[in-house]
């Protein structure tokens, strides 16, 4: 998978002002509406065989089934080896893993809140370049539109690759939820609205009516301490509402959606080769 907009790719050697300026260019280019090469209803964790069986049954009952395979969904996560990043990509078609790749790259920056893509973006692009397939959807461990300049990791790399992308974060970087998020039941969701910490960029507003993502309670367990929600947001070529629906469709038995959960596990597995 190669960058469609290499001119917008994160690169080393930039000052903070230059990095923030590049993020604004990325946000101006980002599309926060649905522009997908697949029907979101086709996204699931069913195996292709199960999917085909369901389509056959639907057709027999008079339903509308086009016979297309489920889209390719790539989960992306990282582990770290001192001053290097190991970026892992796991691609699923339905519930079946069809490709796994990783790349080890030098890190040029420490972690700086709001500038994560300049630390981890280049290494992730190195891993995506190893793929033989071209995923239809990218799912990142990090924020998308829920970001001070509406250009988190998922937005930045989604725009660079010109691919539909989703950010899935474990904590809220900015914005305000409509409702209190504590102790919610599985499947619950509430919008995250822009607030004073979010800049309006290009044609993307940042007023209190602007939904920049959702808090989503992917799992909850009666026998365990309360599980906190995920904070999901569109990266590129997705609306906030479709984003949270897709994350729900990609959620299995764990808190994290299956693509990023498998990428996280693979990053740890691959890391052992270098230790």
Automatic annotation (TrEMBL):
EC numbers for this chain: 3.1.21.7
Domain of life: Archaea
Compartmental location: Cytoplasm
Coiled coil: none
Class of the enzyme per the UniProt entry, highest EC level: hydrolase
One GO biological process term: DNA repair
Gene3D superfamilies to which the protein is assigned, alphabetical: archaeoglobus fulgidus dsm 4304 superfamily
Record region (Disordered): 1-22
Record-marked site positions (Interaction with target DNA): 111
Cofactor(s) required, per the database record: Mg(2+)
The keyword Lipid metabolism is assigned to this record: no
Binding site for Mg(2+): 77, 141
Family that this chain belongs to: Belongs to the endonuclease V family.
UniProt name for this protein: Endonuclease V
Organism in which the protein naturally occurs: Haloferax chudinovii
Gene: nfi
